Amino acid sequence: MSGTRLTGAVRTYPRRSPLTLGYVGLLLLTHAWITYGLTAARADSVLRYISTDLDNLADHPLTALLGSALFFDGTLTDVTSLYFPATVITLGIGVCCCLAWAERRWGPLRAFAVFLASHIGTTLLTAAVIALALRQGWYADDVRRTLDFGISYGAQTMMAAATPALPRRARLPWAVFVVAWPFGGAEWEGPLPDFTTVGHVLAAALGFTLALPPVARRLVRRPTPAGTEGDRLARSGRSAS
């Protein structure tokens, strides 16, 4: 992208993707609140309450699922941390770029409905995998209470769904990157990697399904042609005269 196009994209971002911009602002506010506004003990208490671990999903599923989508798990300041690249990928690429693209292409309400549905659906599918793995002895029992929150599953789905927006020659490398990056820090326990890696793979599969042409065509917003309402009224007036 040329400098002029990039400048234009940044300048028109608030007008073209207002819901995404507002959501990013909210995520930054909650991150600042949890990082700087609360004591470490209080912040841990809040995050543990909105964690989508198995115990919380059994006790207060709605609060956990919706509350988890209000935070991102990462860092914006510690560039030497292994969490920083993940933040750039999920918040920077997945939400700021790919969710914004979906908002422009699908419309704001549909884009955010898909984002939230992917966040919830992938979380629940991952919970089912965890339950199965516990029964098989593949995961340790304390995984039931492992802290798990954030936007990364929804962001991963948006990254995969945005594949058709890329030039054809870039689509396969992009798809490989989307599937592969979660394995960078994967920990294997038996035949499965850790559950967050499983969740990201499931989220990517959902996003690639949304990118299939028959599905993608259904998601595209159908713009109302300018003047349609006026033309209808004009025709009505002519027929009545």
From TrEMBL:
<dbReference type="Pfam" id="PF20401">
    <property type="entry name" value="Rhomboid_2"/>
</dbReference>
<feature type="transmembrane region" description="Helical">
    <location>
        <begin position="82"/>
        <end position="102"/>
    </location>
</feature>
<dbReference type="InterPro" id="IPR046862">
    <property type="entry name" value="Rhomboid_2"/>
</dbReference>
<keyword id="KW-0472">Membrane</keyword>
<feature type="transmembrane region" description="Helical">
    <location>
        <begin position="114"/>
        <end position="134"/>
    </location>
</feature>
<protein>
    <recommendedName>
        <fullName>Integral membrane protein</fullName>
    </recommendedName>
</protein>
<feature type="transmembrane region" description="Helical">
    <location>
        <begin position="197"/>
        <end position="216"/>
    </location>
</feature>
<feature type="transmembrane region" description="Helical">
    <location>
        <begin position="21"/>
        <end position="39"/>
    </location>
</feature>
<feature type="region of interest" description="Disordered">
    <location>
        <begin position="221"/>
        <end position="241"/>
    </location>
</feature>
<keyword id="KW-0812">Transmembrane</keyword>
<keyword id="KW-1133">Transmembrane helix</keyword>
